[in-house]
């Protein structure tokens, strides 16, 4: 599924990296310095909340403040609240968007690329 989203975003002019674990993502963002992170709450080796907590604690404040949009099928109220408390920009459910609609929503929330 991640590769389908990647292809749709690349086709719309975004530069995209797909990373499947929170630990790998925490390392990768130091090098890639993304403008925006789409985050699933269900990840191997640490969930999305773990990733958000660790990212927000990073010494490099530019990385720590990177905008994050959650894109998940996991919609548990306490998890949503924790993510919001950690400063996410939005919490989107995968089931509410086709890949094309998701690209349009990200453009709307984050700005035209």
Please, what is the average pLDDT? 92
CATH superfamily: Response regulator
Strand runs, count: 3
Give me the number of helical elements. Answer: 6
Separation of the first and last Cα atoms: 22 Å
- Shape verdict: globular
CATH class annotation: Alpha Beta
Q: What sequence of helices (H) and strands (E) makes up the elements?
A: HHEHHEHEH
CATH architecture: 3-Layer(aba) Sandwich
Largest β sheet strand count, sense and barrel closure: 3 strands, parallel
Strand order of the largest sheet: 1-2-3
- Which regions contain 5 or more consecutive residues with pLDDT less than 50? none
Domain module tally: 1
Percent of residues in helices comes to 40-55%
CATH fold-level name: Rossmann fold
Structural class: mainly alpha
How would you summarize what this structure contains?
With 113 residues, this protein is mainly alpha-helical. The chain is 49% helix and 11% strand. Helix 2 (22-32) runs parallel beside helix 3.
Strand and helix layout:
Elements: H1 2-11, H2 22-32, E1 37-39, H3 48-56, H4 61-64, E2 68-72, H5 77-85, E3 90-93, H6 99-110
Parallel strand pairs: 1-2, 2-3
Helix pairs in contact: 2-3
Task: Give the tags.
mainly alpha, Rossmann fold, three-stranded parallel sheet, 11% strand, 113 residues, 6 helices
